[in-house]
Specification:
The chain has one domain: Formate dehydrogenase/DMSO reductase domain (Formate dehydrogenase/DMSO reductase fold). Helices cover 75% and strands 0% of the residues. The chain is built from eleven helices and no strands. It is globular.
Length: 295
């Protein structure tokens, strides 16, 4: 079995940052339509990280593109093939980044817009597409079966929304110093983490029953070289501990101070990055493809 080596850590950073930025803006747009005044502090916090994180993530993607860094005019060819997933993804990322900039300027008082509800819907649609596209980017590489699971885009969207809430919460608590009540968002955050755990379990079980390359990839995460990162840092630190703590607070059995909440949100972000890092590095080429590249 041959683990892929084409996608390095900076692709994991791109997938992570794009997910956090997109997730935060989607939740902010939904909250905006529901009750703007109540969730204004969260909306402003999300506005401060949405577009910048996606833009930084795209920068890491450019690093992977090689010549795109030194000959930026070549990037125009990313729009040249309407049948390509990369072309669609580039268009979605571009539109979402522009919309996020406009929405952020509006929320921070630098711009007035006519139809804020229309902008919210556009952000929700393009934000979900941005979060899901990060998985489609992996799935478009047919030589790696582990990345072809239908659940992967759903998992990435759930994780993006969860980490997006975490990112905005950190900004809200530390930089905006707001303690405004946003209980429904906190409750949704708990459910998202639980759902992410269930989806991750499902993906591993499916992979263990799949073709040899899928099984080998799953086993490398569960029992092999990546087991410590998977079990301790991703599952335990990034998912289980925050889920239990947020669940206890939801049940009114635990009252957490700001520092504790921030620490837990950082743990969720760590888990979100590691999930993408591990899924990328656990990818295994099919035997046929491995034999082809050796020749």
């Amino acid at each position: 079995m041959v683990h892929q080596e084409a996608f390095e850590w900076y692709i994991a950073v791109y997938l992570f940052l794009a997910g956090v930025g997109a997730g935060s803006m989607v939740v902010a747009a939904v909250a905006d339509m529901y009750d703007r005044e109540k969730y204004l502090s969260f909306i402003k916090a999300a506005s401060l990280i949405g577009m910048p994180l996606v833009s930084i993530g795209i920068f890491f993607l450019y690093i992977d593109l090689g010549q795109g860094m030194w000959k930026p005019w070549l990037l125009i060819f990313l729009f040249a093939n309407p049948a390509s997933a990369i072309t669609w993804g580039t268009a979605i990322l571009t539109i979402f980044t522009i919309l996020s900039f406009i929405y952020g300027a509006y929320n921070l008082g630098y711009l007035k817009i006519g139809c804020s509800r229309c902008l919210n819907w556009l952000l929700i649609i393009t934000g979900i597409c941005t979060a899901g596209y990060t998985a489609v980017l992996l799935g478009s590489l047919k030589a790696i079966p582990f990345w072809h699971q239908t659940a992967l885009p759903i998992l990435f969207i759930i994780s993006a929304t969860s980490t997006g809430i975490s990112g905005a919460m950190i900004v809200k608590l530390i930089f905006l110093k707001s303690d405004a009540n946003i209980k429904p968002i906190e409750t949704a955050h708990l459910y998202l983490i639980v759902l992410e755990i269930i989806m991750l379990i499902g993906m591993m079980l499916i992979a263990l029953q799949g073709v040899p390359e899928m099984k080998y990839a799953a086993e490398s995460l569960l029992f092999g070289d990546y087991a410590f990162l998977f079990w301790f840092l991703l599952v335990f630190t990034g998912l289980l501990v925050p889920a239990i703590a947020f669940g206890m607070e939801e049940a009114h059995k635990l009252h957490m101070k700001t520092k504790t909440v921030v620490t837990l949100e950082i743990m969720v972000l760590l888990g979100g990055y590691l999930m993408r890092y591990l899924i990328i590095h656990a990818g295994v080429y099919t035997k046929k493809f491995a034999e082809y590249i050796v020749r």
